[in-house]
Amino acid sequence: MHLWVDADACPVVIKEILFRAAERTRLKLTLVANAPMATPPSALINSVVVSAGFDVADNYIAAQVKPGDVVVTADIPLAAEVVDNGGVAINPRGELYSKENIRQRLQMRDMMEELRGGGAQLGGPAPFSQRDRQLFANQLDRLLAQS
């Protein structure tokens, strides 16, 4: 198992949880972003800088992920590709994407995008909270316990 992070928009607190989890479980962790990311000194933790551009980091992760790998991303199309390829995807708020729910999430995302494209003012996601942090940590622990 390898832990992958779509790191551009991943909250710092989630990265810190992942750093500790990688060291505790001795799993490799790779952050992928368009800019350099600070990582603690560790043979298990690294970062990959990809060129700037739409979905470049997502495409890199999708090309690297193997069945059983865990990908942390808020990007639903990337999550769908990961799930379709036998990986596990979790968002920074602790929601696990699965074969059972990913198509519904994609449909909702597309509908919201269409509404925004039509001029609807929908607002954004709620601010990241302590509860989100705890939900993520708990979901990650469950996933890592299964490996």
Describe this structure in words.
The chain is of the alpha/beta class. It contains 5 helices and 6 strands; from the N terminus they run E-H-E-E-H-E-H-E-E-H-H. Strands 3-2-1-4-5-6 form a 6-stranded mixed beta sheet, with helices on both faces. A hairpin with a 5-residue loop joins strand 5 and strand 6 (96-97). Helix 1 packs parallel to helix 5 (130-146) and helix 3 runs antiparallel to helix 4 (102-117). The chain is globular and about 50 Å long. The mean pLDDT is 89.
Envelope shape = globular
Encode the helix/strand succession as letters: EHEEHEHEEHH
Intertermini distance: 7 Å
Strand content: 15-25%
Derived structural class: alpha/beta
Q: What profile does the largest beta sheet have?
A: 6 strands, mixed
| Global Rg | 15 Å
**Counted beta strands:** 6
Global mean pLDDT: 89
Output the number of helix runs. Answer: 5
In percent, how helical is the residue content? 40-55%
Write a brief caption for the model.
The chain has 147 residues and is of the alpha/beta class. It has five helices and six strands, in the order E-H-E-E-H-E-H-E-E-H-H.
